[in-house]
Specification:
The chain is mainly α. It has helices at about 15-90, 95-105. The longest helix is centred in the middle third of the chain and has 76 residues, at about 15-90. It is rod-shaped, with a radius of gyration of 46 Å.
Length: about 120
Amino acid sequence: MKRQSDNNVSQLNTPYVHKFSADQHRRRVHIRRCRRILLAFLVIFIILGVQIFQSKRTLARVNGNINQCQAQLKEERQNSRQLKQRIRLLHDPDYVQQVVRAKYNYSKKGETVYNLDN
């Protein structure tokens, strides 16, 4: 048994059909081109978005480091001020005598030292 062809319809060969076929082909090419352009823009948008996200994250990390360093600098400056104050006090003979007497139980000749427990 011979199989009948499903293609019983033939295309008309008229100028309208040619124009319609060409228009459809142009439309398909145009749609394909638009999709490729949109895909390219989407890829570029995603790449730039990732870069912006990474730069914001890096900026936040750097700002955190800056804040941490500023706090450390503030502590070091305060420590430096305290040490300078202590140096000034150590140049004062009365203060040095007071420290030596309190810390090392130093006394002058003929002087009696009394230690009182609180």
